[in-house]
Protein 1
Amino acid sequence: MDAFPHCYSVVATAHAEGDVTLTADRLSALRSASPAEFDGPGDQWSPETFLVGAVADCFILAFRAVATASKLPWTSLRCVAVGTLDRVDRVTQFTNVTLRAHLSIPAGTQPDRARQALKKAERTCLISNSLKATTQVETEIELDTDNVEDAACPYAGAWD
């Protein structure tokens, strides 16, 4: 990892009408538009969906780093993120982002270790740490019982 501080540069360009194009060195261009809630087309990524997606993405990448460092085996992590945009003191801002993280771990892995890794990922997510909005993480751990006969999974079926 490079020494801090890190600097990230993105160029956004647009015309009077149409999409905004975001570009950055060595990355594919992205197009965005206002969401339907702000009279946009609603069929493209918007700054609002980028922000909520960035929280979920960062949480997963933070978890991956924590799991790797602690040698915690895991199968998959699905994270549903919901951001609440509201007016506070006449300013429109995100007030809350809730993450629902569903982690699958191999049979034989201790759920308490996985829970600790999820908590550490929550504490170290640099995107949520950079927001004014509060972030809540709801976690669920499922034992991956593929190829294991008669294994009981107390978490199966939740959040489907």
Protein 2
Amino acid sequence: MKETAAAEAKDKFGELLEIAKSEPVAIEDEGRQVAVLLSFAEYQRLIDLEDRYWGEKAVKALDSGFVAEPEATEWLRKKLSDA
């Protein structure tokens, strides 16, 4: 991963955009990494990966007995009306 200072990133933004098409670019401010510039394709891959992860967690939760939002809402309404 390429690393660059924030001031340099400001001055060479176009060049860094080209680099980001093939590899992430870490941007540092006062010696610590504060941001990463990456291609939209890589960003989309990460979003898709996260969606798949949480989707699998939701399926496992439902399979193990957790209820979905409509059932939980109905259960709560019934409990509140009985009170």
Protein 3
Amino acid sequence: MPDGSYMKQIQDRGKLRAGVSADTLLFGFRNPQTGQLEGFDIDVVKAVALAIFGDLNDRIEYTAMPYSGRIPALKDDKVDIVADVMTINCARWKQISFSSQYFDAGQKVMVRSDSKAKGIEDLNGQKVCVAATSTNETELAEHYPEVDAVPVGDVSDCMVLFQQGKVDAVTGDDTVLLGFVTQDPYAKVVGDAITSEPYGLGIKKGRPEFVQFVNGVLEDVRADGRWKQWYQRWLDGNAEPPTAQYGRPPS
């Protein structure tokens, strides 16, 4: 790594410090059999670490965190990078930097399998769980005020309330809801996506060379087929990686 670069600091430290989720099935979760973190986002972090160190021999220090902890962890320099189904938007750009987008998601709704709701519009007056500080919560507040939003610390808490019957539905990114449905045969996802949620890797402001380096890693995984392999492994399908977009999204 170039002398004086942030990548060199990470290399000299011997570990890449990554903020991730430990309970978002398919993207960042702890395998109950092995105790190891797995998922699409974990594979992305591993690709960055491999590019810095040339190996993965205990090179990553994972910190599991709720949605609300992602930006503070970067600003307080507790982690080098956040890979946690994190949507790129202007409000967050004011606080941190982002890589190019590496995944396209969209906000949807999960209800019980016997529900007659066909989308968010059918849930007026009903309790809908959402992760606090997420883009999903902002969308409910701005465009669906008649829904009785129930914000919680992390989206995994929504699954608990849903299974306890304390909320009627859960709203979140379709990627996250897919993991929930995989765990609960009495749940289903309904309706079209009501937002576009481009995921990026969060990085502390003032480290442009690290952003450029990470973007180069993402270009490599798009080009060499690793992105498609991850998608097939975790999402059980075929898809093309999103076209890289750089810089702040339009307001």
